[in-house]
Amino acid sequence: MRRLSFDWDGRTLLVATPATSPTGLNPAGTRTARPTLGHTRDAVMVDGDVDVPDIDALPRQTGDRFAARTGFDPRTLATPYRWFRITPHQIQAWREADVLVGRTLMRDGSWLA
Hints:
single chain; 40% strand; elongated
């Protein structure tokens, strides 16, 4: 399992990972992602479209906010990293098996809850 730091700005998830890792190569190629946030019994699953700006392409304040919120600044590392901006089109959440019904919170980019 790979853990990713992320920043949620109210519309998109911003993550960063090594550019040549499978975690980076897959969404860069397909332009889709399905990150799951949380733990097995208390999870949020996000299906979204992926934008892949170069590590220096984001506004400085966006990178600074990411670093402040996550405690991690990929812009300062020797290993080449990439940003991945995920725009959700579906979000599901559940805590236990008994909440599987009604777990869809967003569909087609519109909030249901």
